Amino acid sequence: MKVITMSKRLLVLAAAAAMSTTALTGCNLGDDDERPSVVVGFYPIEFLTSRIGGDHLNITSLAAPGVEPHDLELKPRQAAKITDADLVVHLDGFQPAVDDAIKEHNPKAGYNIAESTTLKKGYVPEESHEEGEVHQDGEDTDPHVWLDPTRMQAMADGLLKKLEKIDPSHKSEFRDNTRALKTELGQLDTDYQDSLANCGSRTFVTSHNAFGYLAERYQLTQLAISGIDPENEPSPERMREITDLAQANNTTVIFTEELVSSKVADTIATQLGARVEVLNPLEPVEGKDDYLSAMRDNLSKLRGAMSC
């Protein structure tokens, strides 16, 4: 028969108590966060929400880094996050899976961040299609509104009002954060205006029609090879048209993106003797960059491409 001394018994009891406490704490990790829960669709919304809300919000982004946010398919745990959220911030029409989940699980919490600005139509060129299928050039709503810093300012104001409602105790701090953020966005806008004021060309070529708001804001012309949806293949007629326009504008750079195929950009660049560079639509922003630094990196590349 094993004899346990009093000192050993005390040690065993203490260890058991510690294990029990740890187990209970582990079970509750992540469940005792009393901060308002905000779910966001993709990076530009996450940037605004985190800059305004700071540490006072429990923010969950639905778009994984390195994944095209248009193509998001929600997992059950992400749908559960939407169900339980105090606020779900999305851009209506940009991520259909998110729009549908909000309508199904938590419509009262949904907030379309584009409500505080005006979306415009973007040119959609004829794309490759099966023989006999009719497809006309046309227009579609352009969702890439975040690439205009002044529209980001407007969206920050709209988001502020929503955050004040779900967390009124931090209203003053949210307002201070918004003012500071809008000042930074204003400086970014000034930098773009000043840096693009005198350029040898005011035309740039992109792999898909993502930079219309930026071009409109700074009086530039975007020549987009593909339409609003980067996955759609341009028609041979569109490829020839862009090649001719790029040649007429003495284009030396064809812009592509990290998350889409560079095949069409490479094809046109080869015909023109131009180089291919990456212009970031900021749908995700990875590494140490944030919205502001990524936008400034884009500015530097645009200046080089247009001889500013």
Key phrases:
alpha/beta; Rossmann fold; four-stranded parallel beta sheet; 2 domains; 308 residues; disordered N terminus; globular
Can you lay out the helices and strands and say which pair or pack?
Layout: H1 6-28, E1 37-40, H2 43-53, E2 58-61, H3 76-84, E3 87-90, H4 96-105, E4 110-112, E5 121-124, E6 138-141, H5 149-166, H6 171-195, E7 203-208, H7 212-217, E8 221-226, H8 236-248, E9 253-256, H9 263-272, E10 275-278, H10 291-305
Parallel strand pairs: 1-2, 1-3, 3-4, 7-8, 7-9, 9-10
Antiparallel strand pairs: 5-6
Topology as a string of helices (H) and strands (E):
HEHEHEHEEEHHEHEHEHEH
**Number of distinct beta strands:** 10
The CATH architecture of the largest domain would be 3-Layer(aba) Sandwich
The first-to-last residue Cα distance is 90 Å
Give the tally of structural domains. 2
Could you report the average pLDDT, rounded to the nearest whole number? 86
Oligomeric state, counting identical vs distinct chains? single chain
In CATH, what is the class of the largest domain? Alpha Beta
| Poorly predicted runs of 5 or more residues | 1-30, 128-138
- Helical residue percent band: 40-55%
CATH H-level homologous superfamily name of the largest domain: Nitrogenase molybdenum iron protein domain
Largest sheet: 4 strands, parallel
Shape: globular
In angstroms, what is the radius of gyration? Answer: 25 Å
Give me the secondary-structure category: alpha/beta
The portion of residues forming beta strands comes to 5-15%
Number of helices: 10
CATH topology of the largest domain: Rossmann fold
Give the strand line-up of the largest sheet.
Answer: 2-1-3-4
